[in-house]
Design the sequence.
């Protein structure tokens, strides 16, 4: 699915056109914004449920036929807000942030891969619930659909990592991340998978990255066939959404999956979101999860 990419030297970055921040807040090309939060207008206009149901049913048919057993179904949602892309970037509080002038902004909670001292780690994020739901943490941890979805994506990412690393292991399985938004708090489940890279990995960094693309958490399994179904069913252009961005200092790498993504088309802002579909999925719940993710982390 990859079509466009940019490799820019840090010294060539111009903050009039591109701004970023990584999980280590010191890695950024712009100081922390001095803007103060204020009342945010946030009106969303998603695909209606009946149209979503048709796409969901098509995915389920493919799952029941054995063509896929996990597929990340996404759709665009029109957004009206009193903030522009740069203001959304500046006010957002997120693990990873990226802004490209007049194109899009991203405030992603999900790491793609990290490389530190020759050790590579990936952190698949699968499973979302509104934290205000009674016993939310217990509910998501015990949900059969969420358990199956997360197990599938961990297995997929473990296999992806095994292509480039040795001694691959699941270091931490299904832990809870808290995400604060302009609407409410969300809980998401993540895992940590690690492995050891060869000593000369810097010579093959591009191969390492591209061998793992697209990220398993935003595609599905088996990956190749699932991507074919996504193209057919979603029927829109993801563009840079669900791609990756990151920073390499010559030895270590930090990178993010480009989710929680707002794109500008003309005068309209489009928020792209979705979720993983398995044989256990319920259409109304999946539609609701897609809308839960249409937020900005401003609070």
Sequence:
């Amino acid at each position: 699915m990859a079509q466009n990419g940019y490799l820019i030297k840090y010294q060539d970055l111009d903050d009039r056109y591109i701004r970023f921040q990584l999980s280590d807040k010191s890695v950024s090309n712009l100081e922390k914004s001095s803007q103060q939060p204020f009342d945010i207008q946030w009106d969303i206009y998603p695909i209606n449920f009946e149209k979503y149901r048709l796409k969901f049913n098509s995915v389920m048919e493919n799952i029941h036929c054995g063509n896929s057993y996990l597929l990340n179904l996404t759709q665009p949602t029109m957004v009206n807000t009193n903030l522009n892309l740069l203001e959304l970037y500046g006010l957002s509080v997120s693990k990873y942030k990226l802004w490209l002038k007049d194109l899009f902004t991203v405030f992603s909670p999900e790491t793609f891969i990290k490389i530190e001292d020759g050790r590579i780690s990936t952190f698949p994020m699968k499973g979302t619930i509104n934290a205000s739901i009674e016993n939310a943490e217990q509910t998501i941890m015990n949900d059969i659909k969420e358990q199956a979805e997360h197990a599938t994506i961990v297995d997929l990412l473990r296999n992806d990592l095994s292509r480039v690393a040795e001694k691959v292991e699941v270091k931490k399985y299904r832990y809870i991340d808290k995400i604060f938004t302009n609407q409410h708090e969300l809980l998401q489940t993540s895992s940590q998978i690690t492995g050891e890279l060869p000593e000369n990995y810097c010579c093959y960094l591009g191969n390492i990255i591209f061998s793992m693309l697209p990220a398993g958490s935003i595609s599905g399994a088996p990956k190749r066939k699932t991507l074919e179904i996504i193209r057919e069913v979603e029927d829109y252009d993801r563009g840079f959404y669900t791609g990756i961005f990151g920073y390499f200092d010559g030895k270590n790498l930090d990178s993010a999956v480009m989710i929680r993504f707002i794109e500008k088309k003309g005068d309209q802002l489009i928020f792209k979101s979705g979720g993983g579909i398995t044989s256990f999925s319920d259409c109304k719940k999946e539609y609701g999860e897609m809308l839960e993710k249409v937020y900005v982390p401003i609070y």
Summary: The chain has one domain: 14-28+39-292.
